[in-house]
Amino acid sequence: MAYKVYLKKGEEKRIINGHSWVYANEVARIENKDKNGSLAEVYSNDGRFIGKGYINHASKILVRIFIRNSDIDDEEFYLKRLKQANDYRLKLGYSNCYRMVFAESDNLPALIIDKYGDVLVMQCLSLGIDMRKKLICNCLVRLFSPKGVYERSDVVVRKKEGLEEVKQLLYGEVPDYQQIEENGIKMLVDIKNGQKTGYFLDQKENRFAVRKYSKGEVLDCFCNSGGFSLNAATVADRVTACDISSLALKNVTDNAKLNGFENIDTLCGDVFEILRSFKKEKRQFDTVILDPPAFCKTADEIKDAYRGYKDINLNAIKIVKSGGFLITCSCSHYMSASLFEKMLIEASKESGRIVRSVEIKTQAPDHPSLLCAEETQYLKFFVLQII
What we know:
Structural class: alpha/beta
Helix content: 25-40%
Number of strands: 20
């Protein structure tokens, strides 16, 4: 018999407004008995039905609600949800590469699916979704007939669900490197070993936007496989792509060759140290791009992350030529837009230079955010001009 989860008085408001997470400390009592990972019914304290979601007693997020009516989580249900998610992206004009499913934002909590040409990459972040990944994979094959489906559930957050990190082929064939096209540029995506699911699709429109600001000499920091570097190279005289990973820089070189770019150099090293050395040498660039990994993955890390963001942005401001641009990003939702902007204001004041804000953007439309769930709004992209 399905679990029946009753919330404490007043705890239902956030969930009724559309948020999917039910925390264990919000629960008054649980009735009936079923398997962990099964579909549980959630009720308000006075017995009003709120919705259904997968339960996990090992997680602080006890239930992730994704059904708010009488539907059941069978194959037809997943076929419908997956098609709805993909249809939204097609309506926006996405075709070759995009995020097909963005978890809570597509009412499929803890499920990520990215499309790279005819290959789909899936990430399962909760026990309930993990238990049904074969069902979901079968639905993907029925709907889209991909060449292959690969699982990239090699993420630390799975430990909070009592799950091990996993990388594996789920269906068909998947190459080590899959070629995609983004903004008219060919990219080789490292499906099996690249960061996240192989590539950062959320910056697609932002990478195209840097072309407006990349005349002259450009420094791309935390360049990964070169998404920003290659877009900048379409207009720049010279681009220096910097990363601590030699594998990432090899990917940059391979992608540059694939597109016939001869104006991209690579520099391997710690970005913090490289920025300081450029400042010491008084070397300057027309444009500096900062797209670091998330410096804080928990709320407890915000203070240290703030210092880290301030360090790189302060030093970057100092090495931008007068009239040039700093393009700076944060992908941690714990570093809110207001906090990120506060950091930039402090960095600009301490730099002794006049800085003006030119453009502010967020994640690509294939990564929509829910107004009721601040966790889904995470990417900050600021273009600043250094006067």
